[in-house]
Amino acid sequence: MLFKIIVIGMLLLIGYSLFSALYHMMKGNQHDARMIKSLTWRVGLSIFLFSLLMLGFYTGVIVRT
Fold first, then answer.
1. 44-61: string of b/e by CB count within 10 Å (b at 16+)?
2. Which residue positions in the chain have pLDDT lower than 70?
3. Could you say which of 42, 46, 52, 60 would form a disulfide bridge with 17 (CB–CB 3.0 to 4.6 Å)?
């Protein structure tokens, strides 16, 4: 149950970061530092979530049905 909450929280953070970058892109310059920082956070969070899912699969927390 805790693993599902963490995954959902990570997905929400990734979505927030993506829409934050969209907001900064629409508001100002396309090469704004805040937009680049938001996209960098999104990529980092996505890589972390992928590795967390792989770890959960290999340790048996996530079971194929």
1. ebbeebeebeeebeeeee
2. 29-30
3. 42
